[in-house]
């Protein structure tokens, strides 16, 4: 990507890479898509990739690697202990995050497991800008509670605020005062806040959070899984960072945090994860659990090939021309949908384009899972697979009632460097058609509902024959077309 201007007007993001390996994808007829979504219990997690045209479920572990990452994988040093490959990764993490100690782990939630086991005690609270599903599950399983301290801007679907992922400093102070410092395990900040639409925090806000942590002597923990997008937005939108390099901004962020953890399925375009810190005591406590849950300290559940790819991937993440591809494609898609009147989260964030299902399907109450219904409907009419991010993904209250999500979003993740602009245009076309036919979409009900993280394996049924009616309307309008 670059800031290249087009002479004849239309401004589109321009890739700064070329494709050298491709994978065939299938666009099945609507009749098969109807069968497939029924077989999947109307849960897009349960679809088979063979039935999917554009997989916009997630960016996790599915970003395109560079030729240099692929090449590095060939020279991986396969040894259980003391692998040279690990040393390379260790050095790179220490260089980029400027932390002395690094613990490799198999993915992001493994870091959350170990951090929560060590630092969350029953009855304690973890304040954060916003929760992520696996983060919350680990904190809750260890007896803690999550308190979300977002600004009033965060939940506004349409906004021009550049940093909707910021924490509200007054509310953070008030929360700590109310419960007392001893009740707080640590403060967590999530980069590129996933569940509110990939929205960033500002470096300035993180500095203020740090001051609060200093005042109360609390640890600040950064979830850096979506840091790449957040770095791009800080560089673009925060005046004082305009002249800083991506690496300098990363260093400045990391300096403010006691513990940094990440999913390398997102950050670094590989698969794996890890935790780094300068706090030796914290490091030693977490280290004890790594061989128990992850593996020896020089691989932590990661394959050596992935560690090689990650080392290069982290270095490439420090290039603005690399990390701007996702946000620029997402901005393009979001802008095109806005032009067609489709309700989306603005400003466009990182991670993906987010449709506002609450407005898209304003005839459905939250208990009928509008975002889940929209995910099923979009797959049906396009073969595009998105992910529900709303009430369907929440855990029920202890009394069995629904936890109504703050937002009902359909997330269309943009795996980095994977889809072309024409594919994005196809998705926009089908979404716009679906919006015109939104009245045909009905609700969903769980028929099999797991207690924890129910959205992964839960099965649902349609509340009427709306999927058949939608498929029939598709045939009517598109004729023989796929
Ligand atoms: N933190 C954030 C902000 C995440 O987005 C994720 C994963 C994790 C932690 C957990 O990392 O998957 O490597 O265990 N998000 C994926 C997603 C699952 O699709 O958004 P993991």
UniProtKB/TrEMBL annotation:
<dbReference type="InterPro" id="IPR001597">
    <property type="entry name" value="ArAA_b-elim_lyase/Thr_aldolase"/>
</dbReference>
<keyword id="KW-0456">Lyase</keyword>
<dbReference type="Pfam" id="PF01212">
    <property type="entry name" value="Beta_elim_lyase"/>
</dbReference>
<dbReference type="InterPro" id="IPR015421">
    <property type="entry name" value="PyrdxlP-dep_Trfase_major"/>
</dbReference>
<keyword id="KW-0663">Pyridoxal phosphate</keyword>
<dbReference type="InterPro" id="IPR015422">
    <property type="entry name" value="PyrdxlP-dep_Trfase_small"/>
</dbReference>
<dbReference type="InterPro" id="IPR015424">
    <property type="entry name" value="PyrdxlP-dep_Trfase"/>
</dbReference>
<protein>
    <submittedName>
        <fullName>Tryptophanase</fullName>
    </submittedName>
</protein>
<dbReference type="InterPro" id="IPR011166">
    <property type="entry name" value="Beta-eliminating_lyase"/>
</dbReference>
<comment type="similarity">
    <text>Belongs to the beta-eliminating lyase family.</text>
</comment>
<feature type="domain" description="Aromatic amino acid beta-eliminating lyase/threonine aldolase">
    <location>
        <begin position="55"/>
        <end position="426"/>
    </location>
</feature>
């Amino acid at each position: 990507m670059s800031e290249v201007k087009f002479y004849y007007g239309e401004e589109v993001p321009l890739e700064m890479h070329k494709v050298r390996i491709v994978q065939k994808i299938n666009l099945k007829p609507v009749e098969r898509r109807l069968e497939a979504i029924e077989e999947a219990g109307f849960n897009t997690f349960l679809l088979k990739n063979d039935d999917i045209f554009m997989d916009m479920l997630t960016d996790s572990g599915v970003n395109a690697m560079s030729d240099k990452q692929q090449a590095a994988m060939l020279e991986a040093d396969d040894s259980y202990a003391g692998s040279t490959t690990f040393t390379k990764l260790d050095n790179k993490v220490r260089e980029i995050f400027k932390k002395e100690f690094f613990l490799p782990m198999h993915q992001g939630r493994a870091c959350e497991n170990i951090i929560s086991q060590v630092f969350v005690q029953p009855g304690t609270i973890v304040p954060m800008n916003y929760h992520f599903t696996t983060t919350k599950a680990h904190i809750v399983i260890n007896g803690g509670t999550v308190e979300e301290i977002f600004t009033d801007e965060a939940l506004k679907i349409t906004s021009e605020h550049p940093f909707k992922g910021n924490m509200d400093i007054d509310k953070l102070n008030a929360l700590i005062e109310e419960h007392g410092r001893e009740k707080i395990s640590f403060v967590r900040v999530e980069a590129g806040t996933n569940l509110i639409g990939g929205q960033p925090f500002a470096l300035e806000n993180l500095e203020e959070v740090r001051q609060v942590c200093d005042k109360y002597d609390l640890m600040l923990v950064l979830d850096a899984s979506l840091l790449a997008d957040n770095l791009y937005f800080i560089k673009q939108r925060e005046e004082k960072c305009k002249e800083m390099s991506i690496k300098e901004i990363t260093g400045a962020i990391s300096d403010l945090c006691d513990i940094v953890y990440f999913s390398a399925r997102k950050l670094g375009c590989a698969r794996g994860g890890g935790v780094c810190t300068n706090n030796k005591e914290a490091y030693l406590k977490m280290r004890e659990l790594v061989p128990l849950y992850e593996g020896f300290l020089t691989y932590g559940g990661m394959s050596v090939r992935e560690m090689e790819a990650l080392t290069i991937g982290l270095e490439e993440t420090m290039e603005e021309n690399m990390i701007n591809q996702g946000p620029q494609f997402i901005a393009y898609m979001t802008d095109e949908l806005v032009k067609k009147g489709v309700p989306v989260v603005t400003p466009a964030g990182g991670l993906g384009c987010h449709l506002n299902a609450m407005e898209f399907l304003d005839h459905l109450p939250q208990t009928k899972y509008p975002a889940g219904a929209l995910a099923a409907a979009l797959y049906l009419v396009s073969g595009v697979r998105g992910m529900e991010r709303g009430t369907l993904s929440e855990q029920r209250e202890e009394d069995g009632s629904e936890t109504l999500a703050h937002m009902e979003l359909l997330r269309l993740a943009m795996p980095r460097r994977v889809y072309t602009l024409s594919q994005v245009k196809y998705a926009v076309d089908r979404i716009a058609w679906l919006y015109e036919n939104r009245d045909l979409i009905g609700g969903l009900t769980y028929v099999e509902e797991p207690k924890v993280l129910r959205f992964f394996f839960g099965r649902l049924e349609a509340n009427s024959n709306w999927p058949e009616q939608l498929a029939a309307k598709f045939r009517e309008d598109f004729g023989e077309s796929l």
